[in-house]
């Protein structure tokens, strides 16, 4: 192969590797953000259910506001 073709292949390989690295970073970042948002939502949802959607005659888990 010619020197120009070899250089083009090296550039192509490096660009593809760089793109994959960025793509993987974005996907990992998205997944971590998604997990955090879902965990936060579930915590709020559980507190709401415990506080507002339980009957007075059923004990949920006697926790005080200070805990």
List the topology elements:
Elements lengths: L2 H50 L15
Describe this structure in words.
With about 70 residues, this protein is an all-alpha fold. It has one helix at about 5-50. It is about 75% helix and about 0% strand. The chain contains one helix and no strands. It is rod-shaped.
Count of discrete alpha- or pi-helical segments spanning 4 or more residues = 1
Content-based structural category: mainly alpha
Mean pLDDT: 87
Helix content: over 70%
Secondary-structure element order, as H and E?
H
What is the straight-line distance between the termini? 72 Å
Radius of gyration from CA coordinates: 26 Å
Largest sheet: none
Strand content: under 5%
Unreliable sequence segments: none
> What's the overall geometry?
rod-shaped
- Tell how many strands the DSSP assignment holds: 0
Can I get a quick summary?
By secondary structure, the chain is mainly α. The chain has one helix at 3-52.
Task: Spell out the key features of this protein.
mainly alpha; 67 residues
